[in-house]
Write a structure and sequence with these properties.
With 298 residues, the protein is α/β, with parallel strands linked by helices. It has nine helices and ten strands.
């Protein structure tokens, strides 16, 4: 069967209306067409199917055996078409489809969790696909269109991406609980100049890595890195084991690692940014960004 031999939706809608009314005149009125035009559509459909679909000799008009089979299938198809159209419209309104959201380690402990909760309430028809990913992996996924929006602690400029700062997260020093400075309420960063350090690799967390080096440089030293770790839990575990000290976002403190203590770093923070592909973003991205920005306001 070629495309010219297939019934069109207008044929099926006309057929279903006549099957509902069992009267061509009333069906034409409901469809807002003339009765002759409706009759032409039904004859075209019968010619395409190859058999009569209505017994016109009866009053009211009756469907034939072939018409009854077609009636069931046509209604199911038209329902599916209506659902498909409405689903597409819901996506366009930002109220349907899937929103693929990347987020950096520990962000669910701070900024993102209440935003996701609020978004689910406001847009229950949108499936939120949450993916924990480091910054580099989020950027790669965005560029290959495998992610709609990412939340990162800083990202290198890229003309293919839009990026906006949505919050700033304080930073904390993390020390082993038995460290000689752990009992102090305040620990100046320069006091850690001779300590071994555990850091995230630059490839994993470029902005955090750069921020730590900058803070240490402002305190007059370069950290002596003895261990790099790709995972937050591993990094804090290494600190707890006495391998070294580090600087982490304040959200990490919520992990309550028993062998680690945290001390404040005055005026030290790192940006949390939303990042997405340059160009027109899905409406659901705009809705999520609005919630993030509202929560970030003082």
């Amino acid at each position: 069967m070629n495309e010219h031999d297939r019934p069109e939706l207008r044929h099926l809608r006309a057929f279903v209306m006549v099957a509902d009314e069992l009267h061509f005149g009333r069906a034409a009125e409901r469809l807002a067409v003339s009765q002759p035009a409706l009759s032409v559509q039904i004859r075209q459909l019968e010619r395409l199917v190859g058999t009569p679909l209505f017994d016109r000799h009866n009053r009211p008009v009756l469907t034939t055996a072939a018409g009854r089979v077609l009636d069931e299938s046509a209604r199911r198809l038209l329902r599916d078409v209506d659902l498909m159209v409405e689903a597409a419209r819901a996506v366009a309104r930002g109220q349907g489809g899937t929103l693929r959201v990347g987020f950096g380690p520990t962000m669910m402990l701070s900024t993102l969790a209440p935003v996701v909760r609020a978004f689910r309430t406001r847009a229950p028809g949108v499936k939120v696909d949450l993916r924990e990913m480091v910054t580099a992996d989020q950027v790669a996924a965005l560029l290959r269109d495998d992610l709609d929006i990412g939340f990162v602690r800083g990202v290198d400029p890229d003309p293919r991406l839009e990026c906006v700062e949505v919050a700033r997260e304080p930073l904390r020093m993390a020390l082993p609980r038995d460290h000689r400075l752990a009992r102090r309420a305040q620990v100046p960063l320069r006091a850690l100049a001779d300590e071994p350090w555990v850091l995230f690799p630059r490839a994993i967390a470029p902005q955090l890595h750069a921020q730590v080096l900058r803070l240490c440089g402002e305190a007059g030293f370069t950290p002596r890195v003895v261990q790099e770790s790709r995972e937050v839990s591993t990094t804090i575990g290494l600190v707890g084991a006495g391998v070294g000290v580090t600087i982490v976002p304040v959200a990490v403190q919520r992990m309550s690692w028993p062998d680690v203590v945290y001390r404040s770093l005055p005026r030290a923070s790192i940006a949390i940014s939303a990042v997405w592909r340059a160009g027109e973003a899905p409406r659901a991205v705009d809705a999520l960004l609005a919630l993030v920005r509202a929560r970030a306001r003082p």
